[in-house]
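Q: Sequence in, structure out?
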Amino acid sequence: MEPHLLWIIAGFVLVIAELVTGTFYLLVIGVGAFAGAAVAWAGGAYLAQAVGGCAVALAGTWLVNRWHRSHRRSNPKDDFLDLGQPVVLETWTDADAGLARVKYRGTTWDARIGAGTRPDPGATLFINGQDGSTLLVSAAKPSN
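A: Exactly. Output:
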């Protein structure tokens, strides 16, 4: 089999594998394989094919890494859509530990109420965070 066909097959395998990961890294390595195929098709030696493919893959990986860093979210709380939403305290399950059941979105949730706060059932509290399926709530509405 011709060397450029091997590079093309490797490139397609990597590009198809990228569809599973969604990170763009396999895509740029696949593009590097296509660059190796171009060098092979032009008659370059095996070393030239490898160097060409690696150079394109490294440059692409650097660009993807740079793009990921510039598009990183500044605050993980940006993804937490329930932050600041009101809940209603239904019952205490362990008042000493600050554990209670609250009503939110039409159902009852486990909640941990901030230290030093012991509101009565029926009080409105606000979501400050989440620990697994337990809502972290307090009497003060958090600033976004």
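The chain has two domains: 3-70, 78-138.
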